[in-house]
Design brief:
Radius of gyration: 15 Å
Helix content: 25-40%
Largest sheet: 5 strands, mixed
Structural class: alpha/beta
Strand content: 15-25%
Length: 144
């Protein structure tokens, strides 16, 4: 892990941030990076990867939107913010991972909300990686 990333994670662990990390479709690169550095228990209430549509509908309620969509990320984020009020940050990511042939582009949505910065509202990001690479390489890129 790069020194800059280690320092950033240590800074996060030493802050008053405490919350939820939800990643689906891409493994759990953000959660894994946070867990890899001592102090994660001060930062992460829980992390999960709700991969199955059946499980997603059971946990979050039925949603007809595509798994990798802004609407799906909004749906998950709303669930966490409303139910886990003891947390002060919520990170939700949903990705489709491409492959070595680049017939499928790696892309996804990230939603982030912090009660500590509530005046900034919810932030959404769309990420695309237009390179042909293995799933492992994609996971490493997303964790950077």
């Amino acid at each position: 892990m790069q020194t800059d990333l280690i320092n950033l994670i240590q800074e996060i662990h030493n802050s008053n941030r405490f919350g939820i990390v939800c990643e689906t479709g891409c493994g759990q690169p953000v959660a894994q990076s946070l867990y890899a550095i001592s102090g994660a228990s001060k930062t992460i209430f829980f992390s999960e990867s709700p991969y199955s549509k059946v499980y997603q509908d059971e946990k979050f309620g039925f949603d007809e939107n595509r798994a990798v969509s802004l609407e799906k990320v909004q749906h998950f984020l709303k669930h966490y913010v409303e139910r886990y009020t003891n947390c002060n940050f919520y990170y939700v990511a949903s990705f489709q991972i491409g492959d070595e042939t680049n017939k499928i582009t790696t892309h996804g949505w990230i939603g982030y909300y912090s009660r500590l910065e509530a005046d900034q509202g919810v932030k959404f990001y769309h990420v695309s990686i237009y390179e042909a690479m293995s799933r492992q390489s994609v996971f490493l890129r997303l964790a950077e």
